[in-house]
Amino acid sequence: MASHSRFLLLSLFLSSILLTTHIVNSADEEQNLLQQINSYRVSVNLTALKENGNAKCLAEGMADEFRDQPCTNNTGANTVPGTETQFSSYPQVLQSCHLNVTTTRDGAIMPACVPNLVPDLVLSNFTQSQYASNLNDTKYTGIGIGSKNNWIVVVLTTDTPEGNYATATNDNSSANLVSTFGLFCQALFLSVSFWMMM
């Protein structure tokens, strides 16, 4: 029994090391690409992009959606314009990041598929493809990066309300207050009715 529990503990320990290594490698790849993109922008006399947590959340969600797709000319930086893959789960990814279409409209989502995410190839998939026009555009001021398997997704943001990736607010807060008050009144009426019948 003792050897079985030692084996189990050793297995858990090794699994946690492998998982941590993968998470650290993903973070390193993303941080490396951020530094390379900012170096590229500075080299063409543009300001460096600031990290945007909401854009990163969306990039991670999109990378997760792409993760099992093979690299083809219909995916990533090699995509022929107009043949981009559409995801029916995009609204759920937005919702999980507490975003909505109105604050992401002016942003750019740029997925790239590079086997083993080799750093130099990843960078060239952004700087030497149709994505280069976005990276050279002064309207973009923020960035979020996410990766999964052979996929890395860059999301660019603007300083405009339509592209700043601000967290969605509940525009119906007064309607929710009225609705909550209505439910409270119904519950009060039912409980008074119940006590009167007894």
Automatic annotation (TrEMBL):
Residues 30-156 form the Uncharacterized GPI-anchored protein At5g19230-like domain. Keywords: Membrane, Signal, Transmembrane, Transmembrane helix. The chain crosses the membrane at residues 177-197. The keyword Transmembrane applies. InterPro entries: At5g19230-like, At5g19230_dom, CAP_sf. Residues 1-26 form the signal peptide. This is OLC1v1020144C1. It comes from Oldenlandia corymbosa var. corymbosa.
